[in-house]
């Protein structure tokens, strides 16, 4: 089981958000945004920020760093190490099962990810047949989008997706993210797309929109 930073916003959490960081960061990266997201009327939430394992990254001259998978190419069609993505999807599945075992229903578990972390949650949902509450995909992309339909389980789920990206992102061009958004829509996922004049980061307006999206999830439950 992955080591994680855990932040519970109240006693007896009824919801969980599993939030995967980007390349070279760790579980502490997004923990500080919890107070910025929270709204007084929300239910108690368990935020789980796991640490990716340390591994050498090919495009960074093999320098070891925390990563959900190796980046083997600059070409977005082949940049993600498929075996590494698979391993991270399995680790994420184990985290989901841990939350279910703690008493939080799968329908109240949300998956969030920034950059590499987002690529993992998007890959995971294509293969998943059991329910999940929704996906938060920030400044990210879907590895191997051309084969997304083939990767999707025949009885796969289609949870709602919040997706946001920066128009000035130099790491993952917005056109790549927009292609991912269209692919998910074509597969039947209800998707809310948000674009902001920013680089490879998050911004206050994005967090406000995400808070509104989360509010709708909690009210609908």
Report on the architecture of this protein.
It is a single chain. With 221 residues, the chain is α/β, with parallel strands linked by helices. Helix content is 32%, strand content 22%. It contains six helices and nine strands. It has helices spanning 34-37, 82-101, 116-127, 148-151, 174-186, 204-220; strands at 4-8, 15-20, 45-50, 54-57, 63-66, 109-114, 134-138, 161-166, 191-196. The strands form two sheets. The chain has a seven-stranded mixed sheet with strand order 1-3-2-6-7-8-9, sandwiched between helices. A two-stranded antiparallel ribbon has the order 4-5. Strand 2 (15-20), helix 1 and strand 3 (45-50) form a beta-alpha-beta unit. Helix 2 packs across helix 3. The radius of gyration is 16 Å and the shape is globular. The two termini are 29 Å apart. The model has no long low-confidence stretch (mean pLDDT 94).
Write out the strand line-up for the largest beta sheet, numbering strands in chain order. Answer: 1-3-2-6-7-8-9
Would you list the SSEs in sequence order as H and E? EEHEEEHEHEHEHEH
Q: What is the helix tally?
A: 6
Strand coverage percent:
15-25%
- Strand tally: 9
Considering DSSP H and I runs of 4 or more, what fraction of the residues is helical?
25-40%
Largest sheet: 7 strands, mixed
Integer average pLDDT: 94
Q: Structural class per helix/strand content?
A: alpha/beta
Gross geometry: globular
N-to-C CA distance: 29 Å
How large, in whole angstroms, is the Cα Rg?
16 Å
| Unreliably modeled segments | none
